[in-house]
Amino acid sequence: MYQPIKDESIMTSTPELLYPAETPMQVLEKMRPFRELMMLYECAMREVSTKFEVLNAEFSVRYNHNPLEAIKTRLKTPLSIAEKLQRNGKPLSVDSIRENLFDVAGVRIICSFPEDIYSLSDMFLRQDDVKLLKRKDYIADPKENGYRSLHLIVEVPIFLTERTLRIPVEVQFRTIAMDFWATLEHKTRYKQNIKDEPFIAAELKTCADQIAKLDIRMQEIHKYIEHKE
Questions:
Q1: 11 and 2 in contact (C-beta within 8 Å)?
Q2: Closest CA to 169 of 159, 156, 158
Q3: CB 25: neighbour CB atoms within 10 A?
Q4: Segment 76-131, tens digit of pLDDT
Q5: Residue 176 · residue 110 · CB < 8 Å
Q6: Is the dihedral of CA 60, 106, 116, 208 positive or negative?
Q7: 179 close to 149: Cβ distance less than 8 angstroms
Q8: CA 86 and chain centroid, separation
Q9: What residues contact 40, with CB distance under 8 A and at least 6 apart?
Q10: From 120, 127, 158, 191, which residue has the greatest number of CB atoms within 10 Å?
Q11: C-beta of residue 141 within 8 angstroms of C-beta of residue 77
Q12: How many C-beta atoms surround the C-beta of residue 6 within 10 A?
């Protein structure tokens, strides 16, 4: 059970229980640092999304090809942030979020083919204001359940009225088919009391492997068509 931390608590639900002797304005004022931090993460998500929109537009004009099918963003909820900090044995505070969590802001890039993932990610990382913090290639080295994607943790600058801050963002690259698979796998992972769970896990693994092969076959067909034109 979570215990509220005085002054720096990031919990935003039922403030009257956390601060019973304070007015609503006092509660809001204590929440300000957390709200400001969430604003920074949201701005960083927009910054990254815009960068990929520009890259996709350039690809469309120069190469007559749109490698990017969709951009999805997500900001962790206060409850999700608190749970992750607690799982990792970290304090529940604004400073702790800054120091220990690098995936509060997330951007998912959905691509047509695996080679588009590498092309887009390489161009993105070559930009002067993007700093790579961590890279995990689950396409080259899939997870045990068959999941395949490219994960980047990057820092991007956020230009405010009086200062510039660098904010971390998690960027995930998936193909269309693998994104569909990951959505279903996520639902089963967090669903309670699933019947025949080992069977379902095995079926999902088989599907993931088949999707990877199909992605490559579709990519080869695309290359063949482009070469013939």
A1: yes
A2: 156
A3: 8
A4: 999 999 999 999 999 989 999 999 999 999 999 999 999 999 999 999 999 999 99
A5: yes
A6: negative
A7: no
A8: 20
A9: 158, 165, 167
A10: 120
A11: no
A12: 8
Structure tokens at 131: 């700093």
Tokens of 123: 């161009």
- Give, to the nearest 10 degrees, the angle between helix 197-228 and helix 114-125: 80
Paired strand residues for 74:
106
Q: Which two tokens stand for residue 42?
A: 């949201």
Q: What is the pLDDT of residues 63-81, one digit of tens each?
A: 888 899 999 999 999 999 9
The token pair that represents 99 in the structure block: 């120091």
| Eight-class DSSP state of 194 | -
Q: Residue 165 corresponds to which tokens in the numbers above?
A: 């801050």
What is the amino acid identity at position 190? Y
Strands in 150-159's sheet, in edge-to-edge order, are: 68-75, 105-111, 164-175, 150-159, 131-137
